Amino acid sequence: MAGGGNRNDIYGSRMYGSGYPGIDGRGVAGRGFPFYFWPLAWGAAGAAVGGGTVAYLQSNEYGQPSNTSRPGGPMSAAAFQSSSTSSTFRVLADTDTVTSLLTSLKGNCSSSLDSSRTSTSVSPYGGYPQPQQVIQYYRASSIALTLDGYNNAAVSSPEGTPDTPLPAGVDTRLMDCLNQTIGLAAPLFSGSAASGPNIGVLGLVYVLWNILALLS
Question: pTM of the prediction?
């Protein structure tokens, strides 16, 4: 059965296959859907890593990124440009999730964003960003936050290899705001349908408190 995942378990790591409650290790083949949504399918971008030798990125179980049967629609991306550095972050997920998060992220992180170079709508995933650029997976590897210019050598190295450090000069304030907001606002599956977070008034106060703390 799909769904039932808890928001407390939404964070993974930089490893594809992370973010599955109670399951460790690389890859997504044969796993269930604790958050209803399918894991990302890297397609040609995954096949290109390590000259085509990184098998765990090449599963065909969930089709191509353009698969219209994917819950939430085909994979899409949106870009978020720092207003203070050259850092460009991107969010990658199904179309419905990215559309929902775009509104939340632009609203919550506006003070750190260059609005003229930040997405106003989602774009179909066409092979960029790439797996090596992921700095955080969420929701059973069905959402990724990436950083342009980052190249994590651990993606194509033996499992357990430490992640490559982030480059100097990254806008950590914007990165933290994006990361926290995705964790709080990513749609989850509740009961019989995919939905946004049902947090109520007290939950909304908590969300706003967290975002204000990040920006203070």
Answer: 0.87
Burial profile 135-166: b = 16 or more Cβ within 10 angstroms, e = fewer: bbbbbbbbbbbbbeebebeebbeeeeeebeeb
Q: Are strands 88-94 and 143-147 parallel, antiparallel or unpaired?
A: antiparallel
The pair of structure tokens assigned to 175 is 């990165």
Question: pLDDT in tens for each of the 216 residues of the chain?
Answer: 466 678 999 999 999 999 999 899 999 998 989 999 999 999 888 888 878 778 899 878 899 999 999 999 999 999 999 999 999 999 999 999 999 999 999 999 999 999 999 999 999 999 999 999 999 999 999 999 999 999 999 999 999 999 999 999 999 999 999 999 999 999 997 543 444 433 333 334 334 545 555 555
**For 36, how many CA atoms within 13 A lie in the half-sphere containing its CB?**
20
Ordered by start, the domain boundaries in the chain are: 7-215
Residues in CB range of 202: below 8 A, 6 or more apart: none
**Which residues fall within 8 angstroms of residue 141, CB to CB, at 6 or more apart?**
12, 16, 17, 18, 19, 20, 28, 39, 40
| 3-class secondary structure, 184 | helix
Single-letter code of the amino acid located at 60: N
Structure tokens at 21: 């409650």
Alpha helices by DSSP H, the chain: 43-48, 95-108, 172-185, 200-215
Short-list 45, 52, 49, 47, CA closest to 90: 45
